[in-house]
Design goal:
Elements (H helix, E strand, L loop, with lengths): L22 E3 L6 E3 L4 E5 L6 E3 L9 E4 L3 H16 L7 H25 L3 E3 L1 H9 L5 E4 L10 H8 L3 E3 L3 H7 L8 E4 L2 H14 L22 H8 L5
Parallel strand pairs: 7-8
Antiparallel strand pairs: 1-2, 3-4, 3-5, 6-9, 7-9
Helix pairs in contact: 1-2, 2-6, 3-4
Bound molecules: zinc ion.
Length: 238
């Protein structure tokens, strides 16, 4: 992939000279990180606004920052304007919202593609079976589907960080071609599962704490709070 990103100067080749995990500079804190750990934005010179480019489609000049509200706020203070050599308008919360929206859109697109390719298991029982048979690479749970999360297989997937929360049962159902309500989906394709979790990770810090999937008592989610645990254990009909 070729980009004309300002910060692509730090890109490194792997020892073999083949595909590298190229590095970019965070326009907020100024630290380097692998490109796939940073959010990419492009700039619209006419409006001065930035647009989130989670798929790193490579169009236009891009700037990057860590998926953290802190780095977004810092980037808005000057880093983005320096990369784009132009005024950048917008505030951190609007950019955070745009990241969450872009992430949801991308994940929905990935799930739709996976459905068409027959790479999904849909519905709690089928997902539980796919998990038992180790065919499921990632579980997507509707935020209002607490009951499904009490199935032992799905509970384990959540506890091991193998799950993301997305939309509600209605929304997941409509993604599955109007199947009515769908509580839980498993992605069977490893590449799609990796892309979904990577996209979800980018947006996680900008989602409200209540909606972040966190294993009860588990580590790794800074924004975890009590509400998220309650959301997963509330009694609710599947
Ligand atoms: Zn940063």
């Amino acid at each position: 992939m070729t980009t004309n990103d300002e910060s692509a100067r730090t890109a490194r080749k792997g020892p073999s000279g083949t595909s590298s995990r190229s590095e970019r500079t965070c326009a907020g804190c100024g630290k380097h990180a692998a490109a796939d750990e940073l959010v990419r934005v492009v700039h619209d010179p006419s409006s001065g606004e930035v647009a989130v480019d989670l798929a790193s489609s490579g169009f236009g000049r891009g700037a990057h920052f860590h998926p953290s509200p802190d780095c977004v706020a810092k980037a808005l203070k000057g880093g983005l304007a320096r990369v784009f050599k132009s005024k950048v308008v917008g505030d951190a919360s609007a950019i955070g919202e745009a990241i969450v929206k872009a992430a949801d859109r991308r994940i929905e697109g990935l799930l739709t593609g996976a459905r068409r390719a027959g790479q999904l298991a849909v519905g709690a029982d089928v997902v539980a079976e796919a998990l038992r048979e180790e065919r499921a690479k990632l579980v997507v749970v509707a935020r209002d589907a607490a009951a499904a999360t009490r199935l032992p297989e799905i509970e384990r997937a959540i506890a091991s960080g193998q799950a993301v929360a997305l939309g509600d049962k209605q929304r997941l159902g409509s993604l599955m071609s109007g199947r009515g309500e769908v509580a839980v989906i498993a992605v069977l394709h490893p590449g799609v599962a990796a892309a979904v979790s990577q996209t979800y990770r980018m947006s996680g810090p900008f989602r409200s704490a209540a909606s972040v999937v966190a294993p009860p008592g588990g580590a790794g989610t800074e924004s975890q709070d009590v509400r998220s645990e309650e959301a997963w254990s509330s009694s609710e009909v599947r």
